[in-house]
TrEMBL record:
Substrate binds at residues 44-46, 86, 191, 242-243. It comes from the Bacteria. It comes from Kyrpidia spormannii. InterPro entries: IF-2B-related, IF-M1Pi, IF_2B-like_C, Initiation_fac_2B_a/b/d, M1Pi_N, NagB/RpiA_transferase-like. GO terms for molecular function: S-methyl-5-thioribose-1-phosphate isomerase activity. One of its GO terms (biological process) is L-methionine salvage from methylthioadenosine. The gene is mtnA. The keyword Coiled coil applies. This is Methylthioribose-1-phosphate isomerase. The record marks 152 as: Transition state stabilizer. Belongs to the EIF-2B alpha/beta/delta subunits family. MtnA subfamily. Pathway: Amino-acid biosynthesis; L-methionine biosynthesis via salvage pathway; L-methionine from S-methyl-5-thio-alpha-D-ribose 1-phosphate: step 1/6. Its EC number is 5.3.1.23. Catalyzes the interconversion of methylthioribose-1-phosphate (MTR-1-P) into methylthioribulose-1-phosphate (MTRu-1-P).
């Protein structure tokens, strides 16, 4: 399963606002179309928005050549527009910075566009390879017949392919383990109920959707063996920003003595931020909370707060699974080692 494709100078995005009811591909030919798709969450998930943004830069360069404008200026404009779409997932900025570095040495003209295109394709290919490695490391932590709780969507739809936390679940299954997945519905965008459930059904993996507020009750019953989630940004001390609700799950898991794992590629690590307090947290339109599937269910005059992410302190994390290996507590030391170039 793939949510992104590059075909003949067009970025194809499987519109995740329509899934699972409709599989509709959006064809993006301009930077603005890619930026809009990221903002509206037609494409979402930290690695996937990084890949989309990389191709957005290529589109900006392509248009510049067609219009006889300088690529260097067009890349600067594209990067500025795409960087302003969503603030939390660092993969977006990581991918844009890769593209900027290539643009600095690529020069002008069609050959420069081709170099940018090759770089964006590399960002996409590498993400799939990295996710498969995360899956192999992570599968070692999944016991036979595990009942796994996950939040949001961290699968093929959130990445170039395969997924991070959901990739670990896929890998465990590929290794012959029977697993059962508790799928948090993940209000208000329903990434769990709509997208993770969709991927699990396609893979034939047993999944059960629960409301977000059910998770702690299942832990108390002894029905959850481990929790695994993805990440949008990991600070230098191992604090993790991820979909709103993750922090509550980590607290509940620790209270019940249940392992809490985070799976993320090294492109999600941000060594420039000392701890999670410095991670910018996206605040989205309150209408997304006041409405369900476009239908308002709150009374006129009611207001809402929509924080899209929260931060889980490293002290609640039992393992951070990366493509380079599994980081164990003390997490700050392990993350420092990783950022210095080891595992
Ligand atoms: C591999 S995806 C990791 C995270 O990006 C994921 O858990 C998440 O929080 C996605 O949020 P979203 O708002 O759907 O982009």
């Amino acid at each position: 399963m793939r949510a992104l494709g590059w075909n003949d100078g067009e970025l194809l995005i499987l519109d995740q606002t329509r899934l699972p009811l409709e599989e509709r591909w959006v064809h993006c030919r301009t930077v603005e179309e890619v930026a809009e798709a990221i903002e509206r969450m037609r494409v979402r998930g930290a690695p996937a928005i990084g890949v989309a943004a990389a191709f957005g830069v290529v589109l900006g360069a392509q248009r510049a050549v067609e219009q006889g404008r300088r690529i260097s200026a067009a890349v600067r404009e594209a990067v500025a527009r795409l960087a302003a779409t969503r603030p939390t997932a660092v993969n977006l900025f990581w991918a844009l910075s890769r593209m900027e570095k290539v643009a600095e040495v690529a020069g002008e003209g069609r050959e420069a566009v081709a170099r940018l295109e090759r770089e964006a394709e590399a960002v996409m290919r590498e993400d799939e390879r990295v996710n498969r490695r995360i899956g192999r490391w992570g599968a070692e932590l999944i016991p036979q017949r595990a009942r796994i709780l996950t939040h949001c969507n961290t699968g093929a739809l959130a990445t170039a392919a395969y997924g991070t936390a959901l990739g670990v679940i896929r890998a465990a299954r590929e290794e012959g383990k029977e697993v059962q997945v508790w799928v948090d519905e993940t209000r208000p965008f329903f990434q769990g109920a709509r997208l993770t459930a969709y991927e699990l059904v396609q893979e034939g993996i047993e999944g059960t959707i629960i409301t977000d507020s059910t998770a702690a009750a299942l832990m108390a019953k002894g029905w959850v063996d481990l929790v695994i989630v993805g990440a949008d940004r990991v600070a230098a001390n191992g604090d993790v920003a991820n979909k709103i609700g993750t922090y509550g799950l980590a607290i509940a898991a620790r209270y019940h003595g249940i392992p809490f794992y985070v799976a993320a590629p090294t492109s999600t690590f941000d060594g420039s931020l000392a701890d999670g307090r410095a991670i910018p947290i996206e605040e989205r339109n309150p209408d997304e909370v006041l409405q369900v599937a476009g239908v308002r269910m709150a009374p006129p005059g009611a207001s809402a707060l929509h924080l899209a992410f929260d931060v889980t302190p490293h002290s609640l994390i039992d393992a951070l699974i990366t493509e380079k290996g599994v980081l164990r507590p003390p997490i700050p030391d392990a993350v420092q080692g990783l950022l210095r170039g080891g595992t």
